[in-house]
Amino acid sequence: xKISLFQxxxxxxxxxxxxxxxxxxxxxxxxNSGTNTxxxxxxxxxxxxADIESVLTTxxxxxxxxxxxxxxxxxxxxxxxxxxSAIATGGAPDLVLASQEELLALAKFIAPxxxxxxxxxxxxxxxxxxxxxxxxGNAGYYGVPFLVDPLVLFSxxxxxxxxxxxxxxATWESLTGLxxxxxxxxxxxxxxxxxxxxxxxDNVHNARGILSSLFLQQNLPxxxxxANGVPVANLGAVSSxxxxxxxxxxxxxxxxxxPSKVSYTWNSSLVDSQQAFVAGDLALYLGxxxxxxxxxAANPNLNFSVSTLPQPATAQFKSxxxxxxxxxxxxxxxxxxGAFQAAVILTNPxxxxxxxxxxxxxxxxxxxxxxxxxxxxxxxxxxxxLYTSGWLSPMxxxxxxxxxxxxxxxxxxxxxxxxxxxxxxxxxxxxLQ
Length: 433
Prior knowledge:
Low-confidence stretches: 11-35
Largest sheet: 11 strands, mixed
Radius of gyration: 23 Å
CATH topology of the largest domain: D-Maltodextrin-Binding Protein, domain 2
Helix content: 25-40%
Distance between the termini: 45 Å
Number of strands: 13
Shape: globular
CATH class of the largest domain: Alpha Beta
């Protein structure tokens, strides 16, 4: 068994105070001599069961200790309540695999990994920077990062080529300039072919992630921990120069659904943007890297490419929103030591490669992102994983309600962008606290 950087660091920091009676990794051998040192570990997760079960089956062929590890897929929307019920009745799983979008709701049920067992330097040297969202402050870390699913740009190659566009837009500014060349409108301003789905919310697939990306690219953290440790929303901030980056985001986003503007290319009467892209009626689609498999299966004749998420032309650093998945140990787990060992094994180079290949996601370990894979879609996901981040959010359905209301207020004219941001910030604060 090859030892990953993460395991190597952990070997040096584990001691007598190892996490919850965890076995000292230095005693763990590669052949295991047929002995299962991990035992039975049940994982509840939000990723597809077929993908994770395939990974576990492959790993168990060479890692005898992983034969007792099993996976059960759970609905992300009900995971926190399911976990609370399981803990209360003594049936808690040993690990929970979920993204940062469920973290706030799950945190109260999770036993953090103490910093004495997993130091900040070990974490930073092993995982992508966005994984730091799993920090539990002085208590350590909520989980062991596993995979990253970044938001990327899918392009319909025939549409772009026919319009004389050789490459997908790398900046939001250049994207806006493509609208007149690609969008097709009727005389009554009905959209028959759009450039990209932006401007509305309910029929924009991944609108939550798209808006999150735009806010993060303007250096708006969306939420943060206050001095007393309470999460606080931050959308309507005004800079020292008087600028309102959040307002600029909403003005940019909503312009694509304004029929009076040259950037008009989308409206609320159109079908869901993912389905429009599958049907060949949308030139560009913003989706998660893992969606590539669905798009291929939904329309085998769809000729598309994948590129990194557009950035602001003036950005000094790249940023993208994505889903960062981690293994967390719930309170009440029957085998927390074995569960942690299993999570660490899944950060090994071979295991990370197997998991990425099976899921279409990117590894969360820096060591496996050094060399881009040959597959062009995976190469984009690996590149973006390095600068993918998230924010501490309410459950997705609640965030959607707030963001949808915010966009609706702007495009209906009920509120100007700044007032809509302030209202959304107040709603988020109520949910966060």
